[in-house]
Design goal:
The chain is mostly helical and 186 residues long. It has ten helices and five strands; from the N terminus they run αααβααβααβαβαβα.
Length: 186
């Protein structure tokens, strides 16, 4: 679902019907319509997100989004957070590109399209597996927004044992990310 360019639940139901042989297209369509509607209503701005992006933009930092997202959630995001959408210079969305994280091709595609060398890019993400690990593999710098440490216990343990490459920075909130990026010296 995250890499299918469907514009409606019906279009996606047709595609899913081919890979879900035990379900009727009508059953799939009904489920998708409900899920589509829920996704359209489920977007809320994270407190401080717009102001964090504005502060980065005001310092001349280009902003890109590399997201595993499907059409209804992105449409809801655009409707709910139009100021944020306007601040983003590059948008690479799994349903438009045909890749999803952690696929390295998704990261390479974004780097190629922006024309910016990987070592000049900072990947900010909230999961090690989907965001940090692939970004590090393609040469990007990384900031891990550690929103859910309980979900990342095994990864944290691997990092502490030196079994995984650590991110360049770890932040616990959006302020920590913008503060780090705005105050670093290069």
């Amino acid at each position: 679902m995250m890499i299918h360019p469907s514009e409606t639940p019906l279009a996606l139901a047709g595609a899913l019907n081919k890979i879900l042989p035990g379900r009727s297209e009508a059953e799939i369509k009904k489920s998708l319509e409900k899920l589509w509607e829920l996704q359209m209503a489920d977007v809320e701005e994270i407190d401080g997100a717009t102001s964090a992006l504005k502060s980065l933009k005001n310092e001349g930092i280009k902003l890109a989004v590399l997201s595993n997202i499907w059409r209804p959630f992105y449409e809801a995001f655009c409707r709910t957070c139009p100021q944020m959408v306007d601040l983003i210079d590059y948008k690479y969305l799994s349903y438009q590109v045909g890749y999803k994280k952690p696929n390295l091709q998704f990261f390479r595609y974004a780097l190629h399209k922006t024309g910016v060398p990987a070592n000049y890019c900072w990947m900010v993400g909230d999961t090690y597996e989907l965001d940090m690990a692939p970004a590090l593999k393609v040469g990007m710098r990384t900031i891990w927004l550690l929103n859910y440490p309980d979900r990342e216990k095994s990864t944290i343990a691997k990092l502490l044992r030196g079994e995984e490459r650590p991110p360049d920075w770890v932040a616990e909130d959006l302020h920590g990310i913008s503060s780090f990026l705005l105050n670093r010296e290069e």
